[in-house]
Amino acid sequence: MAAARLSGTENRLVSLPLSRIRVIMKSSPEVSSINQDALFLTAKATELFVQYLATYSYKHGRGKEKNALTYTDLSHTAEECETFQFLADILPKKILASKYLKMLEKEKRDGEVREDNDEGEEEEDEDKAVGDSVGS
Amino acid sequence: MAERPEDLNLPNAVITRIIKEALPDGVNISKEARSAISRAASVFVLYATSCANNFAMKGKRKTLNAGDVLSAMEEMEFQRFVAPLKESLEVYRREQKGKKEARKDKDKKADSEEQDKSREEDNDDDDERMEEEEQNDEEEVDN
Lengths: 136, 143
What we know:
The structure holds two protein chains of two kinds.
Chain A: H1 2-13, H2 18-26, E1 33-34, H3 36-60, E2 68-69, H4 71-80, H5 97-110, H6 119-124, H7 132-135
Helix pairs in contact in A: 3-4
Chain B: H1 12-22, E1 28-29, H2 31-58, E2 63-64, H3 66-75, H4 82-109, H5 115-123, H6 127-137
Subcellular location (chain A): Nucleus
GO biological process, one term (chain A): DNA-templated DNA replication
GO molecular function, one term (chain A): DNA binding
């Protein structure tokens, strides 16, 4: 069947599944419809983005010495490079739980105005990477 | 459409392949780095969609088109993507055109057969992909 053969060549043009890209795009409530060209371009752009993020982080990261791409390289990119700043929330810098506890203590000492009740919740995430509360 | 949170993830195998092809041979990509890039890619899609949608709204259009996505890239400071994207789009359009003509020929042969029926036949080979095109055939017109 001709259509089937052609969709094979389309596969080489873009490797991410268009159906999935469409689902992600449509999950944004304000979007009503997307034409096929826009869908294709977004998929292709996402591929370029993945390549760029990977190569940029590898080139500028410390993993290069060990011939590896690590999470730290990526979070470093999100923090340092303006273009990738929009990723800072989902690629937070990792810190040790012990370090985080010290920061909490310091914060407590610095600002006594803080509300008391929100601490219990925060401590639960301490061994994971913590995004927001670290920044300040 | 996105019923489960996993629906917003991109397939890991494909993401991994793209990363591997971009980096020099033999570079080890940690599992954490892979899933981080995958998440970043989903966020990129949402960010691009929202930017593109702003351009569509400015133009008082309801349907996102190629120009909106390209403008979004510039606004997001991914100008470097614009030229390669335009190139791929041209190839893609040519392919789609070829496909449409192939389908038209088939429809002629099928004579007065209802469109829905011939669509069903197409679906045999590549369900998802064909479904996509059907939804978009109408939208493509305003380009």
